[in-house]
């Protein structure tokens, strides 16, 4: 089946490809590796690219996409590009300029999806994580609803086709959904989601509100020492996942990705290996039985690889709620 035909409908009339390519680069990986991997991903058939201001690679990703457009491999309208509003830009007057900054780096006229990266505003400035002289993170009091109104204006201005959120819990989503004068609902909520953290309750809630769940860390994270506890189990080594991979003659990664797609979750996969990038595109070529889907549901242990501890103590920290 042609993966480019597999899209999920968003509540604003647009469509998002069911499989996306993640572009966050661990510190140990040079940007040249990302450039190479992004080229391979486009050639392999990926059309959905998930990026963010804070990944600090938009220039490189934009350059690759533009070069593939210039070569006639893809058109701009074939590409679905996501960027995210970082926490130091939550003040309403900063939102549009933050998006324009990303567009300038990309040399694009618009993005397809603009997300609030985290529901935790920080004080504006050049630092991604601004701290005082004692090393304490500098929080900012900005109403999420005010930030959302500024996101709506970005859509109205044609700078983005769709708007959504990331790392929001149910309570924070409801703040937006219940906002007086709401013009556009979030089209999606991008969260960590994999067989060890299957987000069942949040997925059901989002479906009930016509909000798509987009999954990151779908293969258990790149185990970057900066933000992942090195003692946490390696998802792709899970014996159940490995046995299922054998049964379907696929990789454990393909099983983990296929699991999400069958749940109606849009899934992001990141790899710097040509073989694995191509392999990840083959998730549409097979189907898991309903019995095996239940077995995979049973792997859930509410294990979070990205606990966002670097936002420690923030009053808006989303992960202390049940979902």
UniProtKB/TrEMBL annotation:
It comes from the Eukaryota. The record marks 84 as: Lowers pKa of active site Tyr. It comes from Nannospalax galili (Northern Israeli blind subterranean mole rat). Substrate binds at residue 117. Residues 19-300 form the NADP-dependent oxidoreductase domain. GO terms for molecular function: androsterone dehydrogenase [NAD(P)+] activity. This is Aldo-keto reductase family 1, member C14. PANTHER family: ALDO/KETO REDUCTASE. Belongs to the aldo/keto reductase family. The lineage of its organism: Eukaryota, Metazoa, Chordata, Craniata, Vertebrata. The active site is at residue 55. Keywords: NADP, Oxidoreductase.
């Amino acid at each position: 089946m042609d993966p480019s035909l597999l899209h999920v409908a968003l509540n604003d009339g647009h469509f998002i490809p069911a499989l996306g390519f993640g572009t966050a680069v661990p510190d140990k990986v040079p940007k040249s590796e990302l450039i190479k991997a992004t080229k391979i991903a486009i050639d392999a058939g990926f059309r959905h690219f998930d990026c963010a201001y804070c990944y600090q690679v938009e220039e490189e990703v934009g350059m690759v996409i533009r070069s593939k457009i210039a070569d006639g491999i893809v058109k701009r309208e074939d590409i679905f590009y996501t960027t995210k509003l970082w926490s130091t830009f939550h003040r309403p007057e900063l939102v549009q300029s933050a998006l324009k900054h990303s567009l300038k780096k990309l040399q694009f006229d618009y993005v397809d999806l603009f997300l609030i990266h985290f529901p935790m505003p920080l004080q504006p400035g050049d630092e991604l994580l601004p701290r005082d002289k004692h090393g304490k993170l500098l929080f900012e009091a900005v109403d999420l609803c005010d930030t959302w109104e500024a996101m709506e204006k970005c859509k109205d201005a044609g700078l983005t086709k769709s708007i959504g959120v990331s790392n929001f819990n149910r309570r924070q989503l409801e703040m937006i959904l219940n906002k007086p004068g709401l013009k556009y609902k979030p089209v999606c909520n991008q969260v960590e989601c994999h067989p060890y953290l299957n987000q069942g309750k949040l997925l059901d809630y989002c479906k009930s509100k016509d909000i798509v769940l987009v999954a990151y860390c779908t293969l258990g994270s790149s185990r970057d020492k900066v933000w992942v506890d090195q003692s946490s189990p390696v998802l792709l080594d899970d014996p159940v996942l490995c046995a299922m991979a054998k049964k379907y003659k696929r990789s454990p990664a393909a099983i983990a990705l296929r699991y999400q797609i069958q749940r109606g979750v849009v899934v992001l996969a990141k790899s710097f290996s040509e073989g694995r990038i191509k392999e990840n595109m083959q998730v549409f070529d097979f189907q898991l039985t309903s019995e095996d889907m239940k077995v995979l549901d049973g792997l859930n242990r509410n294990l979070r690889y990205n606990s966002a501890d670097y936002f420690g103590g923030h009053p808006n920290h989303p992960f202390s709620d049940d979902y």
